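Researcher: Please translate sequence to structure tokens.
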Amino acid sequence: MTVAVSPGANPALVLNADYRPLSYYPLSLWSWQDAIKAVFLDRVNIVSEYETAVRSPSFEMRLPSVVSLKSYIKPARNPAFTRFNVFLRDKFECQYCHATEDLTFDHLIPRSRGGQTTWENVVTACSSCNLKKGNKPCKDIGMWPTQMPFRPSIHDLHNNGRSFPPNYLHDSWMDFLYWDTVLEP
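Model: Translation complete:
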């Protein structure tokens, strides 16, 4: 009997050689196809498997649910400045009104007035607050963020990320992650 496996199903959690996830944000996942390819290229060890298998006329293999790299990849010391990381630093809420929908960047010192797109000048803002503030500095309109922007450490982002686990966590991943509950798909 052949098992049909959908391309988005059965992702593999990817661990570094020290058995820590390569990343939490986003969670380091590979498609089952990429995980199998890495197994055959001898780049990973299989740590855990799904019950689901793929088959050909001469071969059968259970899909890996957790793999670890054979070669250690040194993690970045400082997080990259990305939209996602700014939102994560600010806990996915507008720094003016605490809304969690329709989030954007806001430059405290507007770009039109020489403001830079840096950790120290950008906050998360909802579209309404961003439009309301426009290209005015905070002091001119008395609109101040709850938390002043700062350059976060990897530790800061990991701590904030504990409040935002992925939508799906397989049981076999739990020994390698810090989220307390398994969320249903």
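Researcher: Any highlights?
Model: Strands lie at 12-15, 29-30, 44-56, 59-69, 103-107, 122-126.
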